[in-house]
């Protein structure tokens, strides 16, 4: 295999890793959105809830305190906006779904 070829080289490997990380983060964002809409969607969304659910769902997928869970958790937190204004859990779930679909807010 030619590792200097653009399809097989380091850049391709890095792009593949970034794509896998986004797919995984997207799945977690959707799991969080599902949770927020099925459990008390009218309640206020809190920053602590954002942090707790990101940790819970990434560790459920990748194990507690593993390199993979820490990496995906950081990706999820990077994409999930901080909770800085009055919003409900259901409203925040809609934002997460839009982000997971690739919409720019």
What does this structure look like?
The model has no long low-confidence stretch (mean pLDDT 86). It is built from 4 helices and no strands. With 105 residues, the chain is mainly α. It is globular.
Please report the distance between the alpha carbons of the first and last residues. 41 Å
**Which spans have pLDDT < 50 for at least 5 consecutive residues?**
none
Q: How many β-strand runs?
A: 0
Content of β-strand: under 5%
Number of helices: 4
Q: Sum up the overall morphology in one term.
A: globular
Helix content: 55-70%
Q: What is the N-to-C order of secondary-structure elements (H for helix, E for strand)?
A: HHHH
Overall average pLDDT: 86
Radius of gyration of CA atoms, rounded to a whole number: 16 Å
Q: Report the biggest beta sheet as strand number plus sense, adding barrel if it closes.
A: none
Structural class by secondary-structure content: mainly alpha
